[in-house]
Amino acid sequence: MRFDIITIFPELLSSVFSAGVIKKAIEKGLLEVRVHNLRDFAHNKHRQVDDRPYGGGEGMVIKPDPIFEAVEKIKVFPETAVYLLSPQGKKFDSLIARELAKKPQIILICGRYEGVDERVAQHLVDGELSIGDYVLTGGEPAAWVIVEAVARFIPGVVGKPQSVVHDSFFDGLLDYPHYTRPREFRGMKVPSILFSGDHEKILKWRKRKALEKTWRLRPDILKKKQLSLEEKRLLDDIIKEGIKNEPD
Ligand code: ADE
């Protein structure tokens, strides 16, 4: 799997892929991340990549020609996914991340300034992606977020595949609570069930906690999810009993 990121500020991204899980994945050969300077694809005197908007108005617009040229040079496979990062895009989420992880190559184009010439969105890319309803000064932080989230779904990137399975959102629920030592900290106790050694019970408790948390904090997610019979029963219990104030 290979990521290619097109940006006019490659230095913004140079350090983010050289630490942690992404760095290890690159070293293991599971992932390649290349950051390209858009100016390398501009052929005018000052390697200018932006220009004034037709029709007038504030700010500058990124020109279509260097972006088209960059994608045409960088794209390797017919199945390569090409996305423009912008606040107008489809909201990026875990489902999209999982689908993108199946692609052999993903090209991410970071927008800047007031915008990118519309012909890029209309005729070059597979779509636009946004990481949230806010405006960043450019797509670079979004590119980082997307590489991180997609990479976790590439087999071998996360040491224990089970951690991805239990991640928030993997099965459409928020994560269950985690605890480590000390067993009691400033009077706050770890729920006793976690010391029971009964794995069945612990699994059920975690499922219940994940459902509780999702119901309390993100009911919108719960509405979209197909609940299993066990999950429905647990949720009925939670609603009937109200949320217990654990630990007990
Ligand atoms: N560029 C500017 N804002 C953005 C956002 N919210 N998501 C993705 N790219 C962006």
What does this protein structure show overall?
There is one protein chain. The protein is of the alpha/beta class and about 250 residues long. It has two domains: about 1-150, Alpha/beta knot, CATH 3.40.1280.10; about 185-245, Trp Operon Repressor, Chain A (Orthogonal Bundle). About 35% of the residues lie in helices and about 15% in strands. The chain contains ten helices and ten strands. It has helices spanning about 10-15, 20-25, 65-75, 95-100, 120-125, 140-150, 160-165, 200-215, 220-225, 230-240, and strands at about 1-5, 30-35, 50, 60, 80-90, 105-110, 115, 125-130, 185, 190. The strands form three sheets. The protein has a five-stranded parallel β-sheet, with helices on both faces. Strands 3-4-7 form a three-stranded mixed β-sheet. A two-stranded antiparallel ribbon has the order 9-10. Helix 4 (about 95-100) links the parallel strand 5 (about 80-90) and strand 6 (about 105-110). Helix 4 (about 95-100) crosses helix 6 (about 140-150) and helix 8 (about 200-215) crosses helix 10. It is elongated and about 70 Å long. The model has no long low-confidence stretch (mean pLDDT about 95). Adenine (ADE) binds near residues 86, 87, 131 and 142.
